[in-house]
Amino acid sequence: MSKTILEMDNVTIRFGGLTAVDSVDMKIEEGTIRALIGPNGAGKSTIFNLITGIYPPSSGEIRFRGTLINGYKPHLITELGIARTFQNIRLFSEMTVLDNVKIGRHCRTKAGFLGALLRGPGVKAEERAITEESMEALKILELDHKADELAKNLPYGEQRRLEIARAMASNPKLILLDEPAAGMNPQEKQTLMSMIRKIQDKGLTIFLVEHDMKFVMNLSDRIMVLDYGRKIAAGSPAEIKSNPAVIAAYLGKEVG
Ligand SMILES: Nc1ncnc2c1ncn2[C@@H]1O[C@H](COP(=O)(O)OP(=O)(O)OP(=O)(O)O)[C@@H](O)[C@H]1O
After folding, report:
1. How many alpha carbons lie under 13 Å from residue 106 in its C-beta half-sphere?
2. How far is the CA of 68 from the centre of ligand 1 (A)?
3. Cα(221) to centroid of ligand 1, in Å?
4. Where in the chain is the domain with CATH 3.40.50.300?
5. To pair with 141 at 20 to 30 A between CA atoms, which of 16, 63, 84, 96?
6. What ipTM goes with this model?
7. Is 3.40.50.300 the CATH number for 1-81+172-256?
8. Which residues form the ABC transporter domain (predicted)?
9. Does residue 81 have its Cβ closer than 6 Å to ligand 1?
10. Which pTM value belongs to this model?
């Protein structure tokens, strides 16, 4: 039987008078690819912010592998095994590709980020392990041959992949990707899709927000649709494509 990795139960968040996420229920099964779609302002990024501890929900429960994580601080949630990328690129452009990934890895080490900067004597063995694991993450995203280049010198599509490698380096069980294909050309999207499948093959669960319907329909096992903070549909790509509420939310535009 499939195991639930992430569960939202009746989750609501209000910002003043605005209910950005309204009574949302969701279950994601381990090892699957789930997409979250919806028009602009539907509450998609807010759901990611709730799961990663940026905001506590106003009400409802969020469980990760059975643990109630409501109100946990973001670094604790990372330690539990949830990593994310952001809509806009957040790389250290003057640092190397490898160092950008190592920063993602340090959040799980005893020495931590400060220790890594100070490079105390006890840090060396840990540092070596971090380099190896970071190179593994780069390999999955096919960026290992660019480890020593400065991040700013990578083409756009590779910079976005580097962000995923950095998220992978914290050794997550669940990875949240916020518009991973945004700004990519069709070839870059195709490459990204095969890499996300490779990440899934490693046993990870993927939850992504994406506006590119073709990308979402091709990649996802299941899709949840939000509109004005409410879940209006959930199902397989085929079910979502033909769902009247979804078509209406997209103002009659063809979905997929
Ligand atoms: N910190 C905040 N304070 C006040 N309102 C917020 C805050 N964060 C989000 N909102 C509001 O909540 C609603 C949902 O925003 P959110 O960014 O989650 O939408 P989205 O579906 O990710 O949109 P997009 O596709 O444009 O990124 C919007 O009306 C937004 O203005």
Report:
1. 18
2. 24
3. 25
4. 1-81+172-256
5. 63
6. 0.96
7. yes
8. 6-253
9. no
10. 0.90
